[in-house]
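Handout, section B. The chain below has 156 residues.
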Amino acid sequence: MLRLALYQPDIPQNTGTMLRMAACLGLAVEIVEPAGFDVSDRHLRRSGLDYLDHVAITRHRSFAAFEAWRAGAGCRLVLATTAGALPYTDFAFRPDDCLMMGRESAGAPEAVHAAAEARIVVPIRPGLRSLNVAVAAAMIAGEALRQTVGPARRDV
């Protein structure tokens, strides 16, 4: 199963948008703490509306705890980063990939970059910094699903 990993998310509304997208597309979500806000179910429900009942969310106390989980789960870490060299549309996704999005304010630190098996980028026009993290996550998840399950997916 494709997974969306949120590295220490900063903004509840973006997190809620990504949780809603994950619910609708059938992605599991990994939240790597600490987050910039309370990620309790009560607070997530405020930003994720009633979609939280339709998404599997796992919280990890730290990146080290996430990495320990990932080693046991056997999923490949694919980091979305403005420092990536390979456009996401040129990357060969696999069904067991874990698509990681960095913090809205600071991206992902070097330890996360070093742990990632792949670093991909959403190409944007020169002179602009980045897309909203939820928009980038949707674009990447859509392409990953297109490659791994095809466009006629109706089982979610």
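Note. The CA atoms of residues 5 and 100 lie 4 Å apart. Compare this with the example in section A.
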